[in-house]
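Notes from hallway chat w/ T.B., transcribed later so I don't forget. T.B. wanted the structure written out for a chain they're using in a teaching module, and asked if we could keep both sequence and structure tokens in one place. Agreed to drop them here.
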Amino acid sequence: MMTDFTKIRELKKVLRSNGQGNLNGKPVSLLLSRWRETYEYVDGITVKIVPLNPKYPANVAMYINLDADVLGIDEAEIELYPAFYEDYLLRYYSGLMEELSEKYTANNKLERLLSKIQCQTPDCRIIRRSGLLFNREEQTFVLKLFVLFPTGAGVSILGERISRMITDILKTVEEGSALLDKVELRERLAVYKKQVTLRAFCREKGYVAFVADGSILPRKGDSEEPLETAVSFASPERLRVEVPMEDGSTISGMGIPEGITVITGAGFSGKTTLLEAIESGIYNHIPGDGREFVVAEQSLAVTNAEDGRYVANEDISMFFSEIPFQDIRNFTTKHASGSISQAANIIEAIGGGSRLVTIDEDKSATNFMIRDELMRRIVKDEVIIPFTDRIRSITEQKGVSTILVIGGSGEYLKIADTVILMHQYVASDVTEEVKELKLFSSSEECPEFTESERTVLLTGEGTKSLLLQTVCTEDSKKVICGEYSVDMTAVPSLKTNEQLHSLAKALRSMVSREDICEESLCELSAEYAGKMFEELLQEQKTSNPVYRGWWFDEIRKEEIGMCVNRARGMRFATKPVVL
């Protein structure tokens, strides 16, 4: 630990005293002279206070740095599983800060004083969040809080109260660190390690998804909480695999192999519930969620229809033979139809590197998904190449697997590699039974298709006065960056407003680059997804109040690619790549 930090007691002395040069009772603006320094509280715990807006110096971001050894955690384990420790500690400190904030709210109920302590609150997923990050270089955890200090009528410094509040926050962190439940931590880490082992097993053995026996897949209402009365999942015998764990135990469950998988069944049989659980498997989940051991290929992309989405400079020749008055190899529309939007979603997913796409028949464009034999006979000039005709070549040429929920058409049963039948939330493997029916697909041979590598062409003014905004309501999820507006409502992997913040940051960083046209969109998306949290570790040192005033949640390169592709006003250059 360095010893040249300013001591926190010096700050408290300046705040609480009434002598010459001290701040108690003075204008709030004078707090700016004391913020931005790094103060040492005790050995191993330091704090930096940064105003969110210089006009309101009492509203700050507080960065508390905790050395790893203060927490008594094995540093080697932290290096191996940093995301787990970040998530676990954030949940822990979030609970402590919520209790402390309630105490201050209760005390100020009858006074004209406002004070607030806010810590980022995690959901059921184990992902990286800006509320607590591990700094590998300095071997410290950085806990970020939003704090509103009490002031006299909003204009004067209440030094005694501010000093006490700083003390309470730091004391809570210090005492909480000493009382950390190491037994619970090890138990949760053991679950996390099993999730890591499951993902490695699936990659090695060629499974795109795994659903463990005993998992609780249905959710309670519109929440992410497990439905307590739900039927627990049991894997079909022919799809059951046993996955050995490092501790000698095994986890059994349904392994979905690479290729084309159809989930079918009657209405309300659990088809979509199973698919949505698989889609959630791109992230690990906390114990008690019910989907702890449901994992999926992490590049998974949901590719349903999306009426009205913006499509720009897209090569849609994979699914359209022609479109009147339009160039199908450089197609643009401000309001895509269901078939065009679904085609664009699949093409962009493949171009973005996804190895697994999922489709729900209920959310798809029927004329894009199928064309049966009778329609082929009657309508001979159809310009849409249905997905049934392309799905096999996408699997074989690009190595992209597909999981579909199908309830109304047998066309996909004819071409599926695996067929899972759902009946009252119970899964069975009927692949062999379907093959014995000797069904023949009405698919036709299609011309070879090309994939286009996309690069961004900026038409705006770059970084000049970019408005950066996100909107997250029940009905919409939008990102606005300057002249670019993005509707992400139809992307189910985005669960929080904090993920929208991350997309806005990525989009702004991207359009600020002068060399943006030199790299493919796929490469740029992967680059920003990889370095975003390293940049956020430095946010306390930056002058950008927007980023300091937001929480951020982890996003994948797939979401970044989706965001840029949907940005209204964005233009692209396409370069054909022969598969």
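Follow-up for T.B.: Residues 301-453 form one domain. Might be a good example for the class.
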